[in-house]
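Two proteins follow. First one:
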Amino acid sequence: MSTSPAAGAGMARQNSQNRLMFLFEYTTVRYVGTQNKKIGLLYRMFQLTVMGYLIGWVFLKNKGYQVKDDTIESSVVTKVKGVARVNTTHSDLMGPEDYVFPNQGENFLSITTNFIETPNQKLGNCSENADVPNNNCSKDEDCVAGEAVRAGNGIKTGICLEAHNGTCEIYGWCPTEIRREPDPATIVRQAENFTLYIKNFIRFSQFNFSKSNVSPTQRKSSLKNCLYDKIDNPYCPIFRLGDIVKNTGQRFEEMAVGGGSVGILIEWHCDFDKEADCHPHYSFLRLDSPAEDVKFNFRVARYYTDAEGQRRRTYYKYFGIHLDVMVFGTARKFSIIPTIVNIASGLTFMAAGSYVCDIVLLYVMMKKRSVYTESKLERRSRNEKEIPLQIKPEGLKRKFSL
């Protein structure tokens, strides 16, 4: 049977249109209602869990409706004030220029609380300190001339001084450093009342926001009279050294003897949805271990010329409290993007409840499982002629009991 060219062209156009119909198809989910208390309770519990997580944890606890900037740009300026009476060779009064190191006012500094003094040293030959390791000798050959004593005070001259407990002679600042444990009787008593002024500038670049821990409304007179107190005056930027140590849970009298390291944490948690909610919060902790034998100390020399024109120095081993000012912070502000993302994530979890319940009905519940399977799944063989499914409005949802 032959086909005319016009009829063949018509069939080709019809086949081409049928192939393009998939662009205009819409596939919907087939819903099957089940009257089962266990499955219904499981589904509602899943929904309540997701809603509780979304509202309680995401939005209330973690403020998921806000965008966050935790890259804080910070600058710290420090200044110490206070004087103390001490018993040293050249002075009986110490000011900040004497006991603060370094004195540039950075975010770390050391305040002297105790010291060991070795006065009137001058360059010459003398015996090395007997406590210096690898310095014992029994003959001159044990002391190599020109060799520096490791952890010592000078250069070996090549002579063994048997009269000085068999130690090598050195060329250096003599007499050598006095080595002993720090004495509680020599601590700087007034150091407990030294005050530390901290000025902190911060900036959150994402929000183009800058602020200082010193309010512009605070006058100089109020700064001179205020003192930080966690309850009564939490925003005063002036701290008493004794209170800093006390807030770490340590006793000042004990830390002042051998020194220690203390961290001052300034935390900024700013919520720009609330105009007044951007203030610094201070906390303190001891960074080193009180049980360590070696605590914080450093050495300083004071040079001078005596009456005979000879150059001399007084050598100090300082023990003190090392302070590190560390700044952390986050800033938050409402944004529609994270709000939509978190809500969409919650709805996705909500939809997963349906899949969980389907799995339970299809593979877990044994009683009348086949009834739900036949209603939920529609299977066709390859040779079966596809018949369009006619759905009446009242038949969109089928209910049955398991």
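Second one, unrelated to the first:
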Amino acid sequence: MKITVVGLGYIGLPTALMFANHGQQVCGVDVNDSVINKLTSGQIHIEEPGLQEELDKALRSGKFHAGKEIEPADAFIISVPTPNHEDAYKSCNLDYVKSAVTSVLPALEKGNTIIIESTIAPRSMMDHICPMVEASGFTVGKDVFLVHCPERVLPGQVMHELIYNNRIIGGITEACTEAGKKVYKTFVQGELLETTASVAEMSKLMENTYRDVNIALANELVKVCDELDIDALEVIELANKHPRVNLHSPGPGVGGHCLAVDPYFIIEKAPEKTPLIQAARAINSQMPSFIVQKVEETVQDITNPKIAVLGLTYKGNIDDIRESPAVEIFDQLAFHTNYQVVAFDPHVQVDFASKDFQQTIDQANFVLILADHNEFKNLTVEDFDTVASEAIILDTKNIATQLAENPNYYNLGNISELNKKGAHAL
């Protein structure tokens, strides 16, 4: 089978390589010259465990090549970004998806399958993509087959989960669903779940909305317990001893191109019917400001305080800073002209992030742990010998609990203690 994958980002590239390394001939297409040049020279452009090895294998076999031109194929897989519009409900921007579909149409032949893996708003396939394909002269479900198969993998475990996770196969017609199953059967060992395109769209969105809402509940609990001087993390630990309770972990906010984006695609379609989803989005979106406020209150009496941010990604052990609350916290703090704000992240290549941990925390008055990288899980009290006297460490991910022997270590459980601490001891 010949497969053309359009969009070689965090999902498209692993998907393309997975097909190639399971015997399919794959052309990967991207509009970014840097991406194509790197892949052609044998280098990945994103951080994902095992991905470099998969690229090496695919290039050696000759089953994968990258370029900027769409090539004829049996199946076209579209995996491009779907950002938010800057409108009242942050609705789904289908421009990249539509552009990708338009680019495929000249190469489309009878019997071909088009699969949209990009996360899209409900009814996008029926109301937008299907009409585009049929306007080019094809009958969907008869001449060509149109499917929505949303990705559902966890960054850091993508290569494993592509194979073993269940996949939702949502066709415009039953024939489309069968065509989609034929494509993914080449390597997926999880169950191929048959449904309609619209159900597939909503299922994907609800997977992430469920998590967003439950994280919002945990984050709201943190704010309530901060007000009442109660340890929120202990509350969660004990509540989760109940056999039917599973409170999620709080944090500095949510990010990435899933939890921070997808719920809006539901909200836009039924704003009057989604007060809970909207409230959850607001709670999680406000968490960076809540963290910043805690820092501001603590350092208010210090002249030119140094604040060290550890971690810029939205989750641990990846290089993805899309919609990252850590970056938002950094930006809000950097807005203060009298603060010296520095950042360290061993996974991220950005100008404002240092690669030297000790240089970053040297004489820092406040240290914020904002990403659960493995590098931060093994930090010891001795690693912070160079911080300023009585410096505060706030672990918003609750990953460096071994630092608790430091009396100035805090997490989202005992964050109310910062209200008492103030800046006077610093």
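SUMMARY FIELD: The CA atoms of residues 12 and 291 lie 34 Å apart. The longest helix spans residues 197-228.
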